[in-house]
Specification:
By secondary structure, this protein is α+β, with helices and mostly antiparallel strands. The chain folds into three domains: 96 residues; 98 residues, no CATH class; 219 residues, Rossmann fold, CATH 3.40.50. It contains 18 helices and 20 strands. The strands form five sheets. The protein has a six-stranded antiparallel β-sheet. The protein has a five-stranded antiparallel β-sheet with strand order 11-15-13-14-12, covered by helices on one side. A hairpin with a 2-residue loop joins strand 13 and strand 14. It is globular. 38% of the residues are buried. About 17% of the residues have low confidence. It comes from Myotis davidii (David's myotis). This is WSC domain-containing protein 2.
Length: 567
């Protein structure tokens, strides 16, 4: 065999042209075999199967000619391979049959017939998920869809908007400006030309996501009836009947067979954020100065059982059980840049992790103006903080976020809101942000490794010097404790708005209370199995707390809250 191979090699070495000729013939033969296999691999189909109008197989049935292939990742039958089509919000991910599994769409394979079959099946499946109904006018003062909303100026897709609205039980999903998503139970606007919804989705090339003050609206076919009825209504408490009921809660309906879901259903349909149960009457409205929801009563006063639900309380004619529906209160959702350049620069100063982004969200809702930043954070801009891109000296924003603490940087501002937070929680929040993002969490390995001790050693002194520097070098500094803002948002946010030179509108502040969390507030610190602070860390931090407390009291200001120590 070796001798034969040697002769073969010597033959081609003497005649190179023969070698290249042989190589070309070999490759050509291989290509022909490959093409032939492709044509043979497509089975013959009957006329009815090939017809575009042919009936698609029932959901869950095996698609013809695919055999036992498991397409994509985690698929077990053809029903799970159907995604949402382009126009109705297809995305790279979709839910499997169990409602939880999300898998990437695999290749159907098998040539032209499989592609045609895939397209037809997808079109049928997409009609079950959402139906495009048109382009509608939208107004920042009076939204076409008045449920929840969220923005993403980098990754918004039609499917993502539909999915978020459907999960909350809404009937409609609308996209605007290529990046804004609005949900609602009914459309309160006029239809306009399709040509006016001409903006491409930020996260999905080729798909349209409305336009400037124009909504691309979809009806969500799969919104669950139970989700529409119960939604995500939040229990607000037991409250005394307001003095002028018809002004405080303008919609009233008698309900002999009262239940929580019936009243919440009614108020959701009427587009009101509050549902108040009063025995056999249901009242709907907004939180206002006539009914601010600030003075909760003992729940025993509202303990009358519902006539239609044995285990629910439906209040009494004198004491109302109040729920917040999933309808978004839009009285505080309009935001814009300042109409004229501001003559003063006001800082929103804080140590990292003290809740600055949350405070910005509150200020924007309370004033109606965008906030700016000393830095640029693309993730914040993509989530709706449009002032993030402006230079901090532009004068177009109501205040400027900053973590700076040097004399020169502080003296560049004419006034400041100084936000202070418990250092134990601020350090943990900033550590989570550093290793997990704005609303994420640091991994267990980071807490257990060298990162955490080193972080505390470097950042704990900064927590103290940041406050001391602003008290020393700042002009017209308003101190706000994060804990007080969380506990009494109405009063503390009012103080902040007054410093910013904006008239305080109480109804707007009440609206902010119902929208206070926003998209960038971490949902509580993740509980660790152990206390990350060592005894040495606690002794060091306690010394810094006392230093800051003394500095505040030395300027006739309220000292740190009691819960700062002992921890």
């Amino acid at each position: 065999m070796a001798k034969l191979w040697f002769k073969f090699q010597r033959y081609f070495r003497r005649k190179p042209v023969r070698f290249f000729t042989f190589l070309v013939l070999y490759l050509t033969a291989g290509s022909l075999v490959f093409l032939h296999a492709g044509f043979v691999g497509q089975p013959a189909v009957s006329q009815n199967q090939a017809s575009p109008a042919a009936r698609a197989p029932a959901e869950g049935a095996e698609l013809p000619f695919l055999g036992d292939w498991h397409l994509g990742r985690g698929f077990r039958d053809a029903g799970e391979t159907l995604s949402l089509a382009h126009r109705y919000g297809h995305g790279p991910w979709f839910k499997g049959k169990d409602g939880n599994e999300r898998a990437k769409l695999g290749d159907y394979g098998g040539g032209a017939w499989s592609r045609a079959l895939k397209g037809r099946a997808v079109r049928e499946k997409e009609e079950e998920r959402a139906k495009y109904i048109g382009c509608y006018l939208d107004d920042t003062q009076s939204r076409a869809l008045r449920g929840v909303s969220f923005f993403d100026y980098k990754k918004m897709t039609v499917f993502r908007c539909q999915d978020n609205c459907a999960e909350r039980g809404y009937l409609y999903a609308g996209l605007e400006f290529g990046a804004e998503c609005y949900c609602g139970h009914k459309i309160q606007a006029t239809n306009v030309s399709e040509a006016e919804c001409d903006m491409e989705c930020k996260g999905e090339r080729g798909s349209l996501c409305g336009g400037a003050n124009r909504l691309s609206v979809y009806r969500l076919q799969l919104a669950q009836e139970s989700a529409r009825r119960y939604g995500s209504a939040v229990f607000r408490g037991c409250f005394r009947r307001p003095h002028n009921l018809s002004l405080a809660l303008p919609v009233t309906a008698a309900m002999p067979n009262m239940s929580v879901d019936k009243c919440v259903d009614l108020c959701t349909e009427k587009e009101y954020p509050l549902a108040a149960l009063a025995g056999t009457a249901c009242h709907c409205g907004f939180p206002t100065t006539r009914f601010p929801l600030h003075e909760r009563e003992d729940e025993q006063l509202c303990a009358q059982k519902c006539s239609a639900e044995e285990f629910e309380s439906c209040g009494t004619p004198s004491y109302f059980i109040v729920y917040q529906t999933q309808v978004q209160d839009n009285r505080c959702m309009d935001r814009r840049f300042l109409p004229a350049k501001s003559k003063q620069l006001i800082a929103l100063a804080s140590f990292p992790g003290a809740g600055n982004t949350w405070a910005r969200h509150l200020i924007e809702l309370a004033t109606g103006f965008y906030t700016g930043s000393y830095y640029f954070d693309g993730s914040l801009y993509n989530k709706g903080f449009k002032g993030e891109r402006d230079h901090w000296r532009s004068g177009r924003t109501i205040c400027i976020k900053t973590h700076e603490s040097g004399q020169k940087e502080i003296e560049a501002f004419d006034a400041a809101i100084l936000l202070i937070r418990n250092p134990y929680k601020a350090l943990m929040a900033e550590f989570n942000r550093k290793y997990g993002g704005h609303i994420g969490f640091a991994a267990h390995a980071h807490w257990k490794g060298k990162e955490w001790p080193e972080f505390v050693r470097n950042y704990a002194p900064w927590w103290a010097t940041h406050t001391l520097d602003w008290l020393k070098f700042g002009k017209k500094v308003l101190v706000v404790h994060f804990e007080d803002l969380k506990q009494d948002l109405f009063v503390q946010l009012g103080r902040m708005v007054r410093l910013l030179g904006v008239a305080v509108r109480e109804d707007r502040l009440l609206c902010v209370e119902s929208q206070k969390d926003g998209n960038f507030k971490r949902s509580g610190l993740r509980k660790l199995e152990y206390d990350p602070y060592t005894a040495d860390m606690r002794r060091t931090i306690q010394a810094y707390i006392k230093l800051v407390d003394a500095a505040l009291k030395g300027r006739n200001l309220t000292g740190v809250p009691d819960d700062y120590y002992p921890r």
